[in-house]
Specification:
Protein name: Sn-glycerol-3-phosphate import ATP-binding protein UgpC
Largest sheet: 6 strands, mixed
Pfam families: ABC_tran, OB_MalK
CATH superfamily of the largest domain: P-loop containing nucleotide triphosphate hydrolases
Number of helices: 9
Strand order of the largest sheet: 6-7-8-3-9-10
Family: Belongs to the ABC transporter superfamily.
GO molecular function, one term: ATP binding
Order of helices and strands: EEEHEEHEHHHEHEHEEHHEEEEEEEEEEE
Number of strands: 21
CATH topology of the largest domain: Rossmann fold
Strand content: 35-45%
InterPro entries: AAA+_ATPase (IPR003593), ABC_transporter-like_ATP-bd (IPR003439), ABC_transpr_FbpC (IPR015853), ABC_transpr_MalK/UgpC-like (IPR047641), Mo/tungstate-bd_C_term_dom (IPR008995), NA-bd_OB-fold (IPR012340), OB_MalK-like (IPR040582), P-loop_NTPase (IPR027417)
Length: about 350
């Protein structure tokens, strides 16, 4: 296990980058705590896999250093980093049995045969492949092969870190849930440092102790699922986390109030004067449809009944916003006023959250 330090790390695929826009991975300075489980979350092309490949040694950064337990491994080959990596698509030895595929990393390091047998059986049970141990990998389905790949990544107990690059892409939905649960159990049992790359917020939020949200090659927030939901540090985090994501309203901010669509809205806290593009962010859970005369005017466009609740899509000054209401709520067509729960309001300047006065750092 290892603490992983990213020191002034950045990467460009261009030979001579001339501006920040030329970098696929913009400057990072972070310590990832030994033994914690992290998820790298973001849309395709945001730099997740680039960062993972730098950590594993498959890619050399354009600038900066990477350290394992304060030891500089920037120029160390993958084999010297003592990590296990599982890729998006299965990598298995087709001519070997499932048992021998799982045993290979241990045998390659001269592990005792008795230990190998016990560990292989333990991992096979974890991934649900005990009955296939003596089968050749060649004839198995893609999701079965990916389970072997996952198992081979998890079979070693002495690794500095386990790296997963969207490993459940080819797994069916029910098995995804089971394997995520098993990975979390493995982490709790052995305390490996785990880094899990995904674009799926459900995978990230259910797997990780801390979620690392990336946008345009930059880490915009590292936090617990609760922190990402309640206090998104960037508007992208608010949009990407949650279903539906956070609503944004263009606003004028004046102390403890905002002016939205010509209506004064209480913010529940005071804010220092700020410049730039000012917006108020409110998640659908904190928006209420109301007959109050002082609410923000909104026109109901459609209602989506998803079983446990309804998602109401509304138009506010040409922008679609969403509100979540109870399953039994009656919703009339036409214009309704909406109000906000002050505890669910965040304020942004040029997409970055502004802390209200008095908020603890």
């Amino acid at each position: 296990m290892a603490k992983i330090t990213l020191d002034n790390l950045a990467h460009s695929y261009l030979a001579k980058p001339t501006s920040e826009d030329d970098f696929a991975l913009k400057e990072l300075n972070h310590d990832w705590v030994d033994g914690e489980a992290y998820a790298l979350l973001g849309a395709s092309g945001c730099g997740k896999s680039t960062l993972l490949n730098i950590i594993s040694g498959l890619l050399h950064p354009s600038q900066g250093r990477i350290l394992f337990n304060d030891r500089d491994v920037t120029h160390a080959p993958t084999a010297e980093r003592n990590i296990a990596q599982v890729f998006q698509f299965p990598v298995v030895y087709d001519t070997m049995s499932v048992h021998d595929n799982l045993a290979f990393p241990l045998r390659n390091r001269g592990a005792d045969p008795t230990y190998v047998a016990g560990r292989v059986n333990q991992i096979a049970k974890m991934i649900g492949m005990e009955a296939e141990l003596n089968h050749k990998a060649r004839g198995l389905t893609a999701d079965a092969k990916q389970k072997i790949s996952l198992g081979r990544g998890m079979v070693r107990e002495d690794v500095n870190a386990l790296l997963f690059d969207e490993p459940l892409t080819v797994i069916d939905p029910h098995m995804k849930w089971e394997l995520r649960t098993q990975l979390k159990s493995l982490h709790h049992e052995f305390g490996h440092t785990m880094i899990y790359v995904t674009h799926d917020q459900t995978e990230a939020l259910t797997f990780a102790d801390k979620v690392v949200v990336m946008y345009d090659g930059r880490v915009v927030q590292i936090g617990t699922p609760q922190e990402l939901f309640e206090r998104p540090a960037h508007t992208f985090v608010g949009y990407f986390i949650g279903s539906p994501g956070m609503n944004l309203f263009d606003a004028e901010i004046d102390g403890a109030a905002a002016r939205i669509a010509g209506v004064t809205v209480p913010l529940g806290a005071g804010y220092a004067p700020a410049k730039g593009k000012l917006q108020v962010g409110v998640r659908p859970e904190f928006i209420k449809l109301s007959g109050a005369a002082d609410g923000v005017p909104a026109r109901v466009k459609r209602v989506e009944d998803v079983g446990r609740h309804k998602i109401v899509r509304l138009d506010v000054e040409g922008r679609e916003i969403s509100a979540i209401v109870g399953e039994g709520s009656a919703i009339s067509d036409g214009t309704q006023n909406i109000t906000f729960d002050p505890d669910g309001i965040n304020v942004y300047a040029d997409d970055w959250r502004i802390a209200p006065e008095g908020e603890a750092a």
